[in-house]
Amino acid sequence: MNGVAVRLDAVRREFDGGSIVISGMDLHIDAGEFLAILGPSGCGKSTLLRLIAQLAAPDAGNISFEPAGAFQTAYVFQDAHLLPWRSVLDNAALPLELLGVDRATRHSKALDALNQVGLAGTETKYPAQLSGGMRMRVSIARALVTDPKLLLLDEPFAALDEITRFRLEMQLRELWQDRGMTVVFVTHSISEAAFLAERAVVLSRRGGKIKLDRRMELSSKRTAELRTDPKLGVEMQSLYAAMEEE
């Protein structure tokens, strides 16, 4: 595996005014695992992702990584956040440019990443010339250029139409299987979590606690046919039941 293991021990996070967002959370994510974090709006999913990304610090508890030391983390947001004045190639190469990588190397790696997400031949286009699904794929390519050991995604497909979302979900699974990185995927969609992830964690509506931690009993190869398979329905029902509980 090329991923990094993540461990949260008694992690607590409060907002101003004493509102508890994450409360005493214990969570272990194996290296190379694909984990979905699921829950209703406002339950702390994005806050948890920011804590794992070290974009915010917990008020109590500890977050550790194995192996320890420096590693690349990539973060994909719901909005692609592409720079409109930069080409697709230069948008995808931006993280490497910020790291000081020379032009030839960063463009070569960006081209490889664009090819991996099915965007070969679009490198000279600009964001305004792309569909929403294509812009999101550029965002994913931009995340991949640094060869991250930890890929964090915050509802990246929520604004896309269903068919585009289905295609990107399968593409993301394939990228994860090829690269072996650790993936943490935040979503409010039960079907998306069940289809994409090897394991899903459901957060409580309030208080930032884990209500369900379930491993998906599905084949490692997720195909379009699986979407109508009763086995997927069983997993979705388990997640739905946990989401519905107060």
Question: What is shown here, in short?
Answer:
With 246 residues, this protein is α/β, with parallel strands linked by helices.
Physical arrangement of strands within the biggest beta sheet? 5-6-7-3-8-9
Strand tally, please? 9
Beta-strand percentage range: 15-25%
The best one-word shape is globular
Low-confidence stretches: none
**Biggest beta sheet summary:** 6 strands, mixed
* CATH class type of the domain at 1-71 and 184-246: Alpha Beta
Distance between the termini: 37 Å
Q: SSE order in H/E notation?
A: EEEHEEHHHEHEHEEH
What tags apply to this protein structure?
Rossmann fold, 35% helix, six-stranded mixed sheet, three-stranded antiparallel sheet, 246 residues, globular, alpha/beta, 9 strands
Give a written overview of the molecule.
The protein has 246 residues and is α/β, with parallel strands linked by helices. The protein has a domain at 1-71 and 184-246: Rossmann fold. Helices cover 35% and strands 24% of the residues. The strands form two sheets. Strands 5-6-7-3-8-9 form a six-stranded mixed β-sheet, sandwiched between helices. Strands 2-1-4 form a three-stranded antiparallel β-sheet, covered by helices on one side. The termini are far apart.
